[in-house]
Design goal:
Oligomer: single chain
Structural class: alpha+beta
Number of strands: 7
Largest sheet: 5 strands, mixed
Strand order of the largest sheet: 1-2-5-4-3
Shape: globular
Helix content: 25-40%
Strand content: 5-15%
Order of helices and strands: HHEHEHEEEHHHHHEEHH
Length: 323
């Protein structure tokens, strides 16, 4: 779906309607999953928190479902790596899926946030996490930003998800990375505030990380909301492509937490004290091809898997959209 195509706006609105339908309607598979988890898991209290693209209103028909499962009041637990208790939760959750259910376990993954991946007989895939509620809280903040600037944030992400897939870079520039890049672009163009400004006077809730924020209006930052129309959407997408076609990934970090240019070599000195107290290891914002900071989990470079050839292709395709 090219920006120059005469059906651009009609096709984009169709994708927006699909995303809205997915967001606003729980399907039978999701309801069945929630019922299964509450029935099978041997915990005193079980909280079910769907998140991800299907909940944020940017999903496609084939998008996976993400669910955070809070087990026995673990929402605010924190450790720098998964504890034995978290790994035990993973084992118990994985064993809850058997031949008696339409949901089947297909994989388990370790890493910073252990996951159990299950799939419904209809084809819907779901990633279940159970470490803590950080990712869910990230989604709440993203949805708030989408409400502040729907035409520039949510519509852009919906368009860019299809665009990145069409140019073959979906695995490198995943949806959460596109969201961070869109937010950062809008901040630099004075259309969204830095996350640090929204979190002013808020206290950490999960370990050293602040997950709450002040729900302010754009007018509090001398900003205004763009009208939702075809002209503004085309215009802001062209600005996005022009910005990243010329962005110096080697020199600067994509930093939506501060919402301004930050040199990668000087990155640590711009971060709040709760970040520097962690004794940041292995120069994660300088030694990879790109530095794309998560705006809540501030020590996490979400762009660590992006390689030089990915950046080169991405920038070339951004420029092509302008030619």
């Amino acid at each position: 779906m090219s920006l120059q195509c005469v059906t651009f706006w009609m096709e984009l609105l169709k994708k927006v309607r699909i995303a809205d339908d997915i967001k606003n309607n729980k399907d039978d598979a999701q309801l069945e999953l929630e019922k299964l988890l509450k029935l099978k898991l041997p915990y005193h209290s079980i909280g079910i928190y769907p998140f991800g693209s299907r909940i944020m209103g940017v999903a496609q028909e084939t998008s996976d479902l993400d669910v955070y499962v809070e087990l026995d009041n673990s929402f605010y637990e924190y450790s720098e790596s998964p504890s034995m208790e978290v790994l035990e939760r993973q084992r118990i959750v994985a064993n809850a899926f058997n031949s008696e259910s339409n949901w089947k376990r297909i994989a388990t993954f370790g890493g910073r946030c252990p996951i159990v991946t299950v799939k419904h007989s209809t084809g819907l895939q779901c990633d279940l996490s159970f470490f803590n509620g950080l990712t869910y809280r990230q989604n709440i903040l993203v949805m708030y930003l989408f409400e502040l600037q729907p035409i520039e944030a949510r519509y852009m992400v919906i368009y860019l998800r299809g665009w990145i897939q069409n140019i073959g870079l979906k695995d490198a520039f995943r949806s959460h990375i596109l969201i961070l890049m869109v937010i950062f672009f809008l901040q630099l163009h004075n259309h969204l505030p830095g996350i640090d400004r929204l979190q002013e006077n808020q206290e950490p809730t999960v370990g050293p990380w602040v997950t709450t924020f002040n729900q302010l209006k754009l007018s509090d930052f001398n900003m205004s909301k763009l009208e939702v129309d075809e002209y503004n959407t085309r215009s802001v997408l062209k600005q996005f492509f022009r910005f990243y076609a010329n962005f110096n990934f080697a020199q600067y970090a994509i930093c939506p937490y501060l919402g301004r240019y930050v040199e990668r070599l000087l990155f640590d000195r711009h971060m709040p004290q709760r970040y520097t107290q962690l004794r940041i290891r292995d120069n994660k914002f300088t030694r990879f091809t790109t530095a794309i900071q998560d705006f809540i989990l501030l020590d996490f470079n979400k762009g660590w898997q992006i390689r030089g050839m990915h950046v080169y292709t991405f920038k070339c395709r951004c420029q092509k959209e302008l030619d």
